[in-house]
Design brief:
The chain is α/β, with parallel strands linked by helices and 315 residues long. The protein contains 13 helices and eleven strands. α7 (117-123) links the parallel β3 (107-112) and β4 (128-131).
């Protein structure tokens, strides 16, 4: 508990000491090992962090996939399953490093959310794709590893990630919806303000009206990138005089979401999947983070290792 309290106070060096003390008393404590990994990752000590981040997996998951050999960069050529974990935002974030696999003499297959398949196929045609939660015949693979282990293999490449790792798919409906505003000289601003995360959603979310501050309805049009948007909140934006592009399904149609992001002059979002989508597209993006940020965004940073075109604003 002492380590978790110090994490909340952003005192990660102290929390590391606490977790190590706990492990001296209980060497098999997986929760302490996992939290120790998160503390190291928050300090961007990726080598030590990844050593303990592996304890994020349940025993059931480990027993399932350990039937197949783990893959390492020096493994002999073969078929490799990269299996899914965590949410769709993490799938996109860790995929920022997937281009590093292109020159290896293996055939890689990525299990991920099926909503990402079309855009990933366009950008990584050498990568096989498997729908998340579909039945996988593990006997068909020589090796396996979880997508989060891309950080373990390629953390040294974080400083070399291109501004844009994903090019969107051209969608005529998106072009038609945005072009009239562009022709009239409007600047398009994409916004997303709600997190549906059961554990952290309330902490991460912000009132929608804050996203209108500093914008002028005479010069800016709003693109709604928020999935499952309450209609009352769209009306709050319109009541302030803004035109809103709001007729795409931002939950089911992620190809449209990526295309919409590419049309925006600016993205303002909280820590949710849109932050990762916009970062991967290379859009000019401002992410609003709570005072206790997730390790993915670093500690007291104004920029982000995963997405070079993203700036960070703490609240």
């Amino acid at each position: 508990y002492k380590g978790r309290i110090q994490d909340e106070l952003l005192q990660y060096e102290a929390s590391i000491t606490a977790y190590k003390k706990c492990l001296r008393k209980d060497k098999k404590n997986k929760k302490a090992k996992f939290n120790l990994g998160l503390a190291y990752l928050s300090l961007e000590n990726f080598k030590e962090g990844c050593n303990f981040y592996q304890f994020r997996h349940s025993d059931d998951v480990i027993s399932r996939f350990n039937k197949v050999q783990p893959w390492y960069p020096k493994s002999r050529p073969g078929k490799v399953l990269i299996w899914a974990e965590q949410g769709i935002g993490d799938e996109v974030m860790f995929a920022q490093l997937i281009g590093n696999l292109a020159d290896y003499p293996h055939k890689f297959f990525l299990e991920c959310d099926a909503r990402l398949h079309k855009i990933l196929s366009k950008n990584y045609p050498w990568l096989g794709l498997i729908a998340r939660n579909s039945e996988i015949n593990l006997k068909g693979f020589d090796y396996q590893f979880p997508i989060g282990d891309l950080l373990k293999f390629f953390s040294g490449k974080l400083g070399n990630i291109p501004i844009a790792t994903l090019k969107p798919i051209d969608i005529e409906a998106v072009n038609l919806s945005t072009q009239s505003f562009i022709d009239r000289g409007f600047s398009l601003v994409g916004i997303s303000w709600l997190s549906m995360n059961e554990e952290y959603g309330v902490r991460r979310s912000r009132p929608v009206e804050l996203f209108c501050d500093g914008l002028n309805p005479k010069n800016h049009a709003i693109i709604n990138l928020q999935y499952l948007t309450p209609e009352t909140e769209i009306e709050i934006i319109r009541s302030r005089g803004f035109s809103v592009i709001d007729h795409f399904d931002c939950f089911k149609d992620l190809n449209a979401v990526f295309a919409l992001i590419s049309k925006c002059d600016r993205i303002i979002t909280i820590d949710n999947s849109v932050a990762h989508f916009a970062g991967a597209i290379g859009a000019k993006t401002e992410i609003w983070l709570p005072s206790l940020p997730n390790w993915r965004w670093g500690l007291k940073r104004t920029s982000c290792r995963w997405y070079p075109n993203v700036s960070i604003r703490m609240f």
